[in-house]
Amino acid sequence: MRRLLALLLAVPLLLSGLCGCASRYGEQKTTVNYYPGCYRPIQDLRERENDVAKGTAGGAAVGALGGALLGLLASGGKWEGAAVGAVGGAAAGGVMGNIYAQKQRQRDDNQRLASYLQDIDGDISDLDITGAA
């Protein structure tokens, strides 16, 4: 029973580590009152970063529900089986949700850099998405 409780507590910690608690771009310190279009690329980066965390959490939630149902059915209706299935499903779903969201973010970054390439008309070989924004 103690192992099960320890496992139930360890999975949310693992998932929070996958999501990342802090922004890669730092805390927003500027209030944008004028020319919000100039700030828009940075705002897009922050929104996409939040989308990765949401994708991870959504995958974990769906995985937990599916795992709980599967564990309940496999254990013959015992709650312990549902709990173990939920933990395993949450871990697997969180990892899969994170992978999918990261791939989506990478695709968006590539599209954004291609757009910048057309606008800049120069060498952007050493430009990353943060610098471009």
Detailed description of the structure:
- It is a single chain.
- This protein has a domain at 51-133.
- With 133 residues, the chain is an all-alpha fold.
- The longest helix has 42 residues, at 79-120.
- The protein is 77% helix and 0% strand.
- The protein starts with a helix and ends with a helix.
- It has helices at 2-19, 36-74, 79-120, 129-132.
From the alpha-carbon coordinates, what is the Rg to the nearest angstrom?
A: 20 Å
Distance between the terminal alpha carbons, to the nearest Å? 51 Å
The structural class is mainly alpha
Enumerate how many helices there are, as a single number.
4
Overall pLDDT confidence: 78
Total DSSP E strands: 0
List keywords for this structure.
single chain, 133 residues, mainly alpha, 4 helices, 77% helix, elongated
Helices and strands in order:
Blueprint: H1 2-19, H2 36-74, H3 79-120, H4 129-132
Helix pairs in contact: 1-3, 2-3
Compact summary:
The chain has 133 residues and is mostly helical. It has four helices and no strands.
